[in-house]
Target: DUF4440 domain-containing protein
Amino acid sequence: MQSNSTFNHQADIVNSAIRFINSWFKQSKTITSELNDFFILPGNKIIGKDVIIGRLKGIFGKSDEYVGGRYDIIDVNFELLNDGKGMGFVEGVAGYRDVIQKQSKIVSGPFKLYFALYNGSWKIVNIEFPGFSY
Model:
């Protein structure tokens, strides 16, 4: 991260969200580069990145492909905290066709990706996304 005030945190969060969403639509293993080492869930439950990766592989493994992925980002927000830390989110709507054995169903709905700034990098710490569940 740049130490000067010109560093654009909002653009960094949005670009990370876009990489995550595009990787989701491609069912790509590169999706993991946007994830934090641990996730913070409601009730202060903490789970490791490996659990999330396992969940993503399970979700992607059920489908042959995702087709026609589209999304709109509606809101972006972040707050910088002390010691170079921060919290933020990107929210919007997303949809795609989930193809299983030549049959498809539309999966769509709102999404919200939660981010934390740590060691100069914004990483996803919680996922609410159509087709994803813990």
Q: What stands out?
A: The helical segments are 9-26, 49-61. The two ends are 31 Å apart (CA to CA). The chain is about 25% helix and 45% strand.
